[in-house]
Specification:
homodimer, mainly alpha, Arc Repressor Mutant, subunit A, Tetracycline Repressor, domain 2, 2 domains, DNA-binding, HTH-type_TetR-like_transc_reg (chains A, B)
Chain lengths: 215, 215
DNA sequence: AGACTGCTGTTACCGCAAGTAACGTCATGC
DNA sequence: GCATGACGTTACTTGCGGTAACAGCAGTCT
């Protein structure tokens, strides 16, 4: 494989190899969960451990590379829903539904992506707090915050408000989705509608129940 | 120490010992993070590993016992805010503030509590999906859902709606809090107000920004 | 008294996973 | 011809969760 050929398929042999290794790792992780061992992944790829370490440094590096692929894919689906031509309520519902449909269709990928960083390589003393969330959640929160800031008129302090809302909405979606995925208490459509209602202020509008002070 | 004495301090020697071990474990976990080893914990308690295993079964058992203590403490703080005599908006803000003040004051405890189950003892094949969230989040979500169902008049399907909202609101609070704790982009009071505004439907009310379709 | 029970605690080990060192092998560029 | 460097191996170290197997030391029952 010479330079000319390499130019046609846009991949150096090293990149090609890396892709193959990632695909093997993907299969194992999707089968065994996030606790898949490096030995198992190497075996699936038909090689042995040290090669994985040469390519990805350590386990965290491999997992980060894997997560980035899936995260990018999910984020582009979400961006498509967010950009659909419809009113705001419909867009929110479409985005929620896209997210929920994704985690419903590929629960193992979801599970893998939600595993927190683990590595941390503790900086100085103590351990980094406030970094528990999976990188996927951070990215979704940041992107949503940006979209809100761009499109919604929030008056003064809009920037801060939009970021808070971005992370808050993403967290709402995630927690409700995780719970729903485990218990399946209702259909996806019902869940989407309920969450959208929540964002549309129905909690504030609802009356107190007879017989006590309101929530 | 005979039975009569035991009755006065309400603890069998075994329970007393267990408490001591838990306190030692607490110190280590708060110092070293969730990756504290059983050896380290045993050393802190002045004993060796097998004793820990006799008391708690396995690492998950110890961590569960630790987590339950802290979770109970946090939940009772939250219940107090939730039951304060004020209108609904003030209660929501008080509860958000209580949660955020707690994680701000004891970030290591927070970090520890948010670590997912890990154990799983995989049932049949595959791994349990939809159980990523920390038990604390599940418990908060369920309790909040119950409170909403009790106090807010939601019409038909109120039960399901309330549980969804409970988990959704808890997730919102958690994700926003985690992000805030890491970046400190604003004061706690501002964060509380923004999140309450979100729940009060300000996203729905806000106008589109000039120059594009609305979010 | 003496045996039995049940708790405290120990040392020494197993199995397994992450990560590394040291060594071969083969194509490429000079 | 030969050095460079990627691809690959075996064999090792370290550290962790978890478990035997054993020892001392109450109290308790006969």
């Amino acid at each position: 494989m010479d330079i000319a050929h390499r130019a046609t398929d846009q991949q150096t042999p090293a990149e090609q190899r890396r892709r193959e290794l990632l695909e093997a790792a993907d299969r194992v992780v999707l089968r065994d969960g996030p606790k898949a061992s490096m030995n198992a992944i190497a075996a699936e790829a038909g090689i042995t451990k040290p090669i994985l370490y040469r390519h990805f440094g350590d386990k965290g590096g491999l997992y980060r590379a894997l997560a980035t692929r899936h995260t990018d894919a999910l984020l582009s689906s979400l961006r498509a829903s967010l950009d659909a031509p419809a009113d705001r309520r419909r867009r929110v519902e479409a985005t929620l539904d896209t997210y929920l449909a994704s985690i419903e269709a590929m629960p193992q990928v979801y599970r893998f992506l939600m595993h927190p960083a683990e590595e941390s390589h503790q900086t100085e003393q103590g351990f980094d707090v406030g970094r528990h969330s999976a990188p996927l959640l951070r990215r979704m929160g940041e992107e949503l915050g940006q979209v809100i800031a761009e499109r919604v008129d929030l008056g003064p302090a809009a920037e801060a408000q939009a970021r808070i809302w971005g992370h808050g909405i993403v967290g709402m979606m995630h927690a409700a989705g995780d719970w729903w995925l485990g218990e399946r208490p209702c259909s996806r459509a019902e869940l989407v509608k309920s969450l959208a209602d929540l964002l549309w202020g129905r909690l504030a509008e609802a009356d107190d129940r007879p017989g006590g002070p309101g929530f």
